[in-house]
Amino acid sequence: MAELVGLVQRLEVAVGRLEAMSSSGGGGGPAAASGAVSVYVVAYDNLISGPVAQYTALSQKIGGDVQKHAELMKQAFSYQRQLLVTASSSQKPSDSVLTSLLAPMSKVIQEVQSFREKNRSSPVFNHLSAVSESVPALGWVAMAPKPGPYVKEMQDAAMFYTNRVLKDYKEKDKMHVEWVSTYVSIWTELQAYIKQHHTTGLSWSKTVSHILVCSVCPTWSGCLWSGDSGAASHNALFASINKGADITKGLKHVSDDQKTHKNPTLKVQGGPLPSGPKPFAARPTAAASPARTLPPVLELDGKKWKVENQEGAHGLVISDTELKQVVYAFKCNNSTLQVKGKINSIILDNCKKLGLVFDDVVGIVEVINCKDVKVQVMGKVPTISINKTDGCHVYLNKDSLSCEIISAKSSEMNVLVPNKDGEYTEIPVPEQFKTVWDGSKLVTTATEIAG
């Protein structure tokens, strides 16, 4: 079955090449006008027919939510290919037009991320999370001047979850291990592709004069303008595209998990695109990206490991540890920190989207003033304290089930407990309480308010 799916994928790519190479008396697409598919479109086809097709085939074999997620990813890569075909024969358009060209792919990326959020109880939640955390990498087409490093950053963001899949399935089902390897290879090969063809940003045509492709045509090839003769039509079309609210009447209601202030995964450098919620932004400028004033720090200062001001660092490791030492992580964002060995305590302070993995702590792990952090216990820890934090997932193992979790002034806290079959059960930490006077003292219990 997997081989058949892969064959179908390759056939689809081949048909796409033939369609692009065909010419139909002025009505063909941009590739048809030049008589051949661009070299970098052919190279991208190899990516689709290679690791993307293999990932899709393995996802179908796994089935369920993984398969459904992969179908959305397939659409996203298809839309990106259409954009590349457009760019290969068109001069770079204005930012507003580029926004319209990016819209179909952006919408699917949001659907990929929303699918994960709507299926948090799925038995393959780690698979869905790995894809959801890294799919913004497809936004490289709007990033300059370093699209390759941006893809690497998004790939690293999935590491926490791909490692979980490997840990859960390496002794149970090798197909899931292969799935991880294939999925990661997509982003590795995409980085190599970008380095070869789009080093400083998406390469637009420099030889075709004033040719733009209509983003509303289903085939992306029905509307072409050339030179000054088509300027009026060109301006009229894109004026209609950029009408604002009228263009969005057919879109579905935007739920909380699709809003940037509710779902941090929709935020990246440079701010949102002007036409609506997007999981990535147009090319960032110096004005939109203020310079960092504090350098990143990872050093041992006496008995304290200081980890400060880390941004997008997914390979942070502290390995040479001693029992008397503590780890203090301050203002680390979108990063992953692993602490090996047995130490005294760990503190996370003012961190966002930080993944912490540690072996053994004899004292306490404190999470203070953080947002969207994940803490994974590989060994033992007696106490985990969560204070003034919005979004905290704690992964326990069988040796740390006796851990006490103390929380205050925090929300969206979940503890994931391993089952006998190796899967995890996610249990929310109560946020609402009821307090009554029993005649001699106040008695407080956790409660839920219906509605």
Automatic annotation (TrEMBL):
It comes from the Eukaryota. The lineage of its organism: Eukaryota, Metazoa, Chordata, Craniata, Vertebrata. This is Adenylyl cyclase-associated protein. Gene3D superfamilies: 2.160.20.70, Adenylate cyclase-associated CAP, N-terminal domain. Residues 254-282 are annotated as: Disordered. It is a peripheral membrane protein. One of its GO terms (cellular component) is cytoplasm. GO terms for biological process: actin filament organization; cAMP-mediated signaling; cell morphogenesis. Keywords: Cell membrane, Membrane. Belongs to the CAP family. GO terms for molecular function: actin binding; adenylate cyclase binding. The keyword Cell membrane applies. It is found in: Cell membrane. Residues 295-429 form the C-CAP/cofactor C-like domain.
